[in-house]
Design goal:
alpha+beta; six-stranded antiparallel sheet; six-stranded mixed sheet; 37% helix; globular; binds adenosine-5'-triphosphate; ABC-type transporter activity
Length: 846
């Protein structure tokens, strides 16, 4: 353990590679320096000047070669290794203000048991010995320090002291951290530009993958003031939580906070103070209230707060507002009233910047299960990190996360081959890539057996001990003792209890959680919130926060909240296409089916007995030509729609999460359209190739003369496959569950059969004919019908002179029919985009 703020929590390791000692930097914030040069990995020898955090005055790690023999040398040199490892596995220090947990109030006499933490079976050595005591909330009488000007505390802000308590520091927040000191100082000089970025040539190097290589620069204006300018960064530069325009600039005063990646900067005189968010942030919610249309409150005045490194569990009966609370805390659906404070900064007001520090693991997995762990993380990293990160940098971060979550032995396995608990770890790993400080999980242990439940909860305990705040909504009560704080929601969306988990049952006066939940069920109208607010626990753990009056939420304008797009549109599209192709390629059965299905449909159509195929019979009419077209068109419709009908619904959770991290809606949709479009066009070619290939066709086509008549006939079938695929996407974005797609697919296909115009005459039927214009099969059969001259082959039996104008044997009509078919496809695209919006976090809808 090296006690220096410039040294990261996991900074570097020194290891013996069999030949020499090697120091490796683990993506530390302030870097590792050998002989004054920032390094990633380097061999070191006794006497090497190795500094952590700063090239000159950072803590020095030295190898001492006390003896001459090689063996003895190794033993000596092991010291730094032990040190580095120790640094990574330190339990959180006991706070000086540690309090004994209060005696349980109310009906039941206190039966407080010290928490019984099982030592972990494997992994997570960070298990705090007594986490509840170590992180017990500061009782109200502990004087709270007030935050700095924009909520960020700092030594230069004593003037911000406010009378009384509750002015911003949450109850339970450690007063130690309210007085946070800067991680580093940088001297600004007039006339000199200080450029910030990830690249080593910057004056101020921020080793953070969220930061662009050349991110922003500070420079002095001629009148002696300082200005920050964004250098077209991928993830944005923020002033007081608001994004600067790309390549925009702003004057900076002493009260302003500049945010770049995980670092924030503040000007003090001509000195720049840098605070690095290493994850250790306090977090609190104040008076959170959510009102839905009709005025009903589904979340009522929820207040709680926790210091850094806390693990908080939220439990409550079904419908008690847990998901609503999670959405309010993450900003997915901001509350109507109240505040969420992140390190004393208002999350809603500074959403654009702070949203990047939040990781959310939804209940369903957010990875494509067909991919291997490593491949899935690679695509996720590509989408989430700035475009200028190298594959090597991303790989290094993935390795780091895999190691941290003990997944490195599983990295080459497909996610489907992992156990439920391991799969959850992979979802957590994905969220950890960008080093969030706050991690929210929605029922991570649902569906897991008790052993895995414990495994996942211990994982979360470890994440919190490593310096993050973790909040988990759970149905499982078996492992609550691992948490620092427990929030119990009552029916109706109010707080029934907040405090140490081991005191909760006593608080309710029951022996088991089943009894508590039964009481919630049986006494739904009881004033659980009133009981909580009248308790000593409330005084101890929440009254402090509640003392500040509730505020209405005024969210910044939509464009100021949108997440930055770490990658450009084209790069996102390319990554999404590649990911989708990887997913398809990993499923050999699906690929085989994609070829077999159209082949079978094409072959089946050849069973229709017809002497003349698509040519006129000697007498003129040839009704079987219409039947052949009908079967081929319906086959293309089925194949196209079946390809896409489950595509969006099965990925909905992934889309929702990725959208919140900057995914472009149109790039996502376009990736589906391109890949599925190519597949269906290919399938259309197979159907048409077999279906028309084995038939007599007219001698002359309309477009290509006599040489490519079969292609001319197949093109409408291919385009029909494409448009049907787009219809399938509409169904996929419309439904709530994947099961509902099947009946809709069947309905779609049957309707297409009816409206081909091959079963009965559509032309001349007022209303029905116009309605048929909305059907892709109508236009596809019409286009092929112009080539085959369907008016002649399949005339109106009542009146052969009454021809269908859509089937006119003319090039112009072929073009119109094809144009209408493709226009329908494009219209479907617009509709899908609108429908996708409904499945996005509320803050992303624009
Ligand atoms: N947009 C909305 N409009 C109206 N009512 C809503 C809306 N969203 C949620 N509700 C209602 O609010 C209540 C709380 O819902 P929420 O999903 O937050 O509960 P929950 O505790 O997460 O439940 P579960 O454990 O079953 O997931 C429910 O009664 C739900 O029907």
């Amino acid at each position: 353990m090296i006690d220096d703020a410039r040294v990261s929590w996991r900074h570097a390791t020194v290891s013996w590679n069999g030949r020499s000692w090697v120091i490796e930097d683990h993506g530390s914030t302030n870097g590792t320096y050998v002989q004054g040069q920032r390094i990633h990995q380097m061999e070191i020898v006794p006497g090497s000047a190795v500094h952590l955090g700063n090239a000159t005055d950072g803590p020095r790690v030295s190898l001492t070669d006390a003896t001459a023999g090689a063996g003895a040398y190794s033993a000596q040199a092991a010291a730094p290794q032990a040190q580095a490892q120790q640094a990574a596995h330190q339990a959180p220090p006991q706070q000086p203000w540690q309090q004994q947990a209060p005696a349980a109030p109310q009906q039941v006499p206190p039966q407080h048991q010290p928490p019984q933490h099982q030592p972990p079976q494997q992994g997570w050595p960070h298990q705090a010995q007594q986490p509840h005591q170590a992180q017990a909330a500061a009782p109200p009488h502990v004087p709270h320090q007030q935050p700095g000007p924009a909520g960020r505390p700092g030594p230069a802000a004593p003037q911000a002291q406010a009378p009384g308590h509750g002015g911003g520091v949450p109850a339970g927040a450690s007063p130690v951290h309210a007085e946070r000191s800067p991680t580093t100082f940088h001297q600004l000089a007039l006339g000199r530009v200080m450029r910030i970025g990830r690249a080593l040539e910057n004056e101020l190097v921020v080793s953070d993958l969220q930061v662009s290589r050349h991110h922003a620069e500070f420079h002095a204006t001629p009148d002696g003031r300082f200005e920050i300018r964004d250098l077209g960064s991928h993830n944005g530069t923020y002033v007081n939580g608001q994004p600067l325009a790309k390549s925009g600039s702003a004057l900076i005063g002493p009260n302003d906070i500049v945010g770049v990646g995980h670092s924030t900067f503040r000007l003090v005189g001509d000195r720049l103070e840098e605070f690095v968010d290493t994850g250790e942030v306090s977090f609190s919610a104040r008076h959170l209230t959510v009102t839905v249309d009709g005025g009903k409150q589904i979340l009522k005045d929820v207040s709680f707060g926790v210091p850094e490194k806390s693990l908080v569990a939220v439990i409550g009966p079904s419908g008690s507002g847990k998901s609503t609370l999670l959405k309010a805390l993450t900003g997915y659906r901001p509350a109507n009233q109240g505040d969420v404070l992140y390190d004393n900064r208002n999350l809603y007001k500074q959403f654009a910047e702070l949203r990047q520090r939040i990781g959310l693991v939804p209940q369903d997995d957010i990875l494509h299960k067909e991919l291997t762990v490593r491949t899935a993380l690679r695509y996720a990293a590509k989408l989430r990190f700035p475009a200028d990160t190298t594959a090597q940098e991303r790989e290094a971060r993935i390795d780091e996360v895999l190691r941290e979550l003990k997944l490195d032995i599983h990295k080459t396995k497909k996610i489907t081959a992992l156990s439920g608990g391991q799969r959850k770890r992979v979802s957590v790993a994905l969220e950890l890539l960008t080093k969030p400080s706050l991690i929210f999980l929605d029922e991570p242990t649902s569906g897991l057996d008790p052993g895995m439940d414990r495994d996942v909860m211990q994982l979360l305990r470890g994440l919190a001990d490593d310096g993050r705040t973790v909040l988990v909504v759970t149905h499982s009560v078996a492992e609550l003792a691992l948490c620092d704080k427990l929030l119990v929601m009552a029916p109706g969306g109010s707080v029934a209890y907040f405090g140490p988990p081991e005191e909760a049952l006593n608080f309710f006066g029951y022996d088991t959680w089943a009894d508590v939940f039964s009481a919630f069920e049986n006494y739904r109208d009881y004033d659980w919130a009133g009981r909580w607010k009248g308790s000593q626990h409330y005084q101890m753990y929440a009254a402090d926060i509640d003392a500040v009056a509730a505020q209405s939420v005024q969210m910044p304008p939509a464009q100021a909240m949108r997440p930055p797009k770490p990658q450009g549109w084209g790069a996102q599209l390319w990554t999404l296409i590649r990911r989708y192709l990887s997913v398809i390629a990993s499923d050999k059965g699906f690929m085989a089916l994609m070829v077999i299905l159209p082949a079978v449909l094409g072959v089946v159509s050849t069973l229709i007995s017809s002497n003349y195929g698509l040519r006129p019979s000697p007498r003129g009419p040839n009704g079987s030509a219409a039947t052949i077209l009908l079967i081929l068109a319906v086959g293309a419709c089925f194949a196209g729609a079946a390809n896409s009908v489950r595509e969006l619904i099965k990925e909905r959770v992934i889309y929702e999460r990725e959208r919140a991290t900057g995914l472009s809606r149109s790039a996502y949709l376009m990736s589906k359209v391109i890949v599925l479009g190519l597949i269906t066009i290919l399938q259309g070619a197979i159907i048409g190739g077999i279906g028309f290939g084995m038939r007599e066709v007219p001698d002359e086509g309309l477009l290509f003369g006599s040489s490519l008549v079969r292609l001319e006939l197949s093109l409408p079938i291919m385009a029909l496959g494409f448009t049907a695929m787009m219809f399938g996407l509409i169904i996929s974005s419309l439904v709530k569950t994947a099961e509902k797609t099947m009946p809709l697919l069947v309905m779609f296909a049957i309707i297409q059969v009816v409206f081909t115009g091959c079963l009965f005459t559509l032309h001349g039927q007022v209303g029905v004919n116009e309605f048929s214009y909305l059907m892709p099969s109508r236009w596809a059969v019409a286009a092929a019908g112009t080539t085959a001259d369907l008016n002649r082959l399949f005339p109106n039996q009542d009146d052969p002179t009454d021809t269908d104008p859509l089937w006119d044997h003319e090039v112009g009509q072929w073009m119109v029919d094809m144009g209408a078919l493709l226009a329908l496809g494009a219209l479907c695209g617009v509709i899908v985009a609108r429908l996708l919006r409904r499945h996005e976090p509320e803050v992303m809808r624009k």
